[in-house]
UniProtKB/TrEMBL annotation:
This is Ferrochelatase. It catalyses: heme b + 2 H(+) = protoporphyrin IX + Fe(2+); Fe-coproporphyrin III + 2 H(+) = coproporphyrin III + Fe(2+). It comes from Vineibacter terrae. Pathway: Porphyrin-containing compound metabolism; protoheme biosynthesis; protoheme from protoporphyrin-IX: step 1/1. Its main location: cytoplasm.
Length: 347
């Protein structure tokens, strides 16, 4: 029986009010996030972090001063361990967590994985849609950490899984009752994803294309003829032009059209500041002010069994593949055919 370490990547979030500014410093030190020459980033990153800290502290203060992203990810890791134990008699799998901008960092997790002594390692970003700013940044960070602790077990990467059947099934099961609950059926389903600067997408990042693939696959699974739906982008920060339409504009448009809103966070798989504050408080207030007759925020897929089973399937499929990295579950083309940044190419 082979020992497999599955490393789950997520963004991480501050665990106290004092952690907010150092968390932001880590985020803006990432060359994938702040795309300026290194000597500029070394000064500009801490400057932006200091300027953003009071706003971010106010955001986290609304949810008890800390992000729940780590306990949420730990629950997913435990559920994945159980799903893999049920499905895989040939492998003994254990899930580890590596966060990009707050504890536990890749360096600490790489040391724990080394101590576990795996025969193989599977890297699994908790981002269904691949972006250079998220999955690729985490994997680059992991490679450095693994090298520095001398972790050299054969490693496979899950690049992305925007239409993985478990993800789509879990999403549709959460969305369907919210749509059915809207009296009179005058409803618009908004798929809200974290935005990105336009220049990141122009640079060959598959994220926006994959967000749209996920939304379309969920609509198909819902099978509601004539369903009114749209994709939109939230969480803009900084002076650059970001991809649109923005979630704010879509909420105002729904209000103008007299439509109720059912909003599904299509690029987040757990709860944190962007869902609990931006979607549940700020956009709910905006919807009210904009005349939206009803606003329903759908929960993230979290530990829904269909989603966790889908992750387990991805792990087992990745272990069975000869390729260094896999995209999706084979039900759509790998993103390397269209995007130079696909992790299949990078590996
Ligand atoms: C799909 C997921 C995400 C992408 C893409 C992404 C890009 C991105 N983010 C920022 C800046 C910030 N993000 C912040 C919080 C945050 N971002 C994501 C996910 C993606 N980011 C998550 C899950 C979270 C929440 C963390 C938590 O609460 O646990 C923040 C901090 C909060 C705030 O100040 O608003 C910043 C800043 C940029 C610049 C960017 C792409 C270039
Ligand atoms: Fe973000
Ligand atoms: Fe890919």
């Amino acid at each position: 029986m082979s020992r497999v370490a599955v490393v789950l990547f997520n963004l991480g979030g501050p665990d106290s009010p004092e952690a907010v500014e150092p968390f932001l410093r880590n985020l803006f030190a990432d060359p994938a996030i702040l795309r300026v020459p290194g000597f500029v980033r070394r000064f500009l990153g801490p400057f932006i972090a200091r300027r953003r800290a009071p706003t971010a502290q106010a955001i986290y203060a609304r949810i008890g001063g800390r992000s729940p992203i780590l306990p949420q990810t730990q629950a997913q890791a435990a559920a994945l361990d159980a799903a893999l134990a049920d499905r895989s008699p040939d492998h003994s799998c254990r899930a580890f967590i590596a966060m990009r901008y707050w504890h536990p960092f890749s360096a600490q997790t790489a040391a724990a994985v080394k101590a576990y002594g795996p025969d193989r390692v599977v890297l699994l970003p908790l981002y269904p849609q691949m972006s250079t700013t998220t999955s690729q940044s985490s994997i680059d960070d992991w490679r450095q950490a693994a090298q520095s602790v001398g972790l050299d077990a054969p490693t496979r990467i899950v690049c992305c899984y925007p239409v993985q059947s478990g993800l789509i099934e879990a999403a549709a099961a959460l969305i369907r009752p919210q749509i059915d609950a809207v009296a009179g059926g005058k409803v618009r389903l908004l798929f809200s994803a974290h935005g990105l600067p336009e220049k990141v997408i122009r640079g060959g990042d598959p994220y926006q294309w994959q967000v749209e693939c996920t939304a379309r696959a969920i609509v198909e699974r819902l099978g509601s003829a004539g369903l009114d739906w749209a994709v939109c982008y939230q969480s803009r920060v900084g002076p650059l032009k970001w991809i649109g339409p923005s979630t704010d504009d879509e909420i105002r448009r729904a209000g103008g059209d007299g439509k109720a809103v059912v909003l599904f966070p299509v690029a987040f798989v757990s709860e944190h500041s962007e869902t609990l504050v931006e979607l549940d408080i700020e956009y709910r207030e905006l919807a009210h002010r904009s005349g939206v007759p009803a606003y329903h925020r759908v929960a993230t897929v979290g530990v829904q069994p269909a989603f966790i089973d889908g992750l387990a399937e991805l792990v087992l499929r990745t272990l069975a593949e000869p390729a260094q990295a896999v995209c999706n579950d084979g039900s759509m083309p790998a993103c390397d055919s269209r995007f130079p940044t696909c992790l299949m190419r990078a590996s």
